[in-house]
Amino acid sequence: MTPQLPQISVVVPVFNEQDNVPPLVHEIVAALRGVVAFEIVYVDDRSRDNTLAVLRDLKAQVPELRVLHHTDQSGQSTAIRTGVKAARGAWVATLDGDGQNDPADIPKLIAERAKGSADVKLFAGWRVNRQDSGSKRWASKWANAIRARMLRDATPDTGCGIKLFERAAFLDLPYFDHMHRYLPALMQRAGWKTVSVPVNHRARTAGVSKYNNLNRALVGIRDLRGVAWLIVRSKRTAVEEV
């Protein structure tokens, strides 16, 4: 018998998250098993702790789990793209590996997709009650305001890790480092609609953040200018088969 292909692939990029892996995997299973055919694709970005060993042990317990491993550390956007390319589902849900996104929100995004129009290719999580430090919330507020003014993507929160999007539409987007922070603008540039969905947000309970406000800001300025350039230079046309 041919195994059933997943309808949803849950892609989780991780770097040094050994203590967050088991609870998050079990939460994903609890949220989706019996609800939709799914797979979990973890992408280890060459962690220096026991993340990969923990994932290997979990594979024996969770048949839906697949594990990919970067031989060179490549960053979150590359890890997400690695997972999406390997995904077997037509739609992909992403989660940050730190446990701050709630897998119980994935069915909510799936429900939004079911009632949405066919030209909506991205359902983006919107953290309405962020559980980060005050400095992170302040930095995110200003970054979102600047991004919205430059890109006009009508998205209140592009930094939220939980998203649901069509795999084919994602793989058709231009790829660059940090692209995961600009998915709404890039999807809209490609001619698709996007929807923001309020989701839960949780405090980190283990491990440490891999970013700080300064490095986010320095990279973000350069990326914003690049994405704005892509939008200005884009050209789309309808195609008819004769």
Automatic annotation (TrEMBL):
<keyword id="KW-0812">Transmembrane</keyword>
<dbReference type="GO" id="GO:0005886">
    <property type="term" value="C:plasma membrane"/>
</dbReference>
<keyword id="KW-0808">Transferase</keyword>
<keyword id="KW-0328">Glycosyltransferase</keyword>
<keyword id="KW-1003">Cell membrane</keyword>
<dbReference type="GO" id="GO:0009103">
    <property type="term" value="P:lipopolysaccharide biosynthetic process"/>
</dbReference>
<keyword id="KW-1133">Transmembrane helix</keyword>
<dbReference type="Pfam" id="PF00535">
    <property type="entry name" value="Glycos_transf_2"/>
</dbReference>
<feature type="domain" description="Glycosyltransferase 2-like">
    <location>
        <begin position="9"/>
        <end position="170"/>
    </location>
</feature>
<keyword id="KW-0448">Lipopolysaccharide biosynthesis</keyword>
<dbReference type="InterPro" id="IPR001173">
    <property type="entry name" value="Glyco_trans_2-like"/>
</dbReference>
<dbReference type="InterPro" id="IPR029044">
    <property type="entry name" value="Nucleotide-diphossugar_trans"/>
</dbReference>
<dbReference type="InterPro" id="IPR050256">
    <property type="entry name" value="Glycosyltransferase_2"/>
</dbReference>
<protein>
    <submittedName>
        <fullName>Glycosyltransferase family 2 protein</fullName>
    </submittedName>
</protein>
<dbReference type="GO" id="GO:0099621">
    <property type="term" value="F:undecaprenyl-phosphate 4-deoxy-4-formamido-L-arabinose transferase activity"/>
</dbReference>
<keyword id="KW-0472">Membrane</keyword>
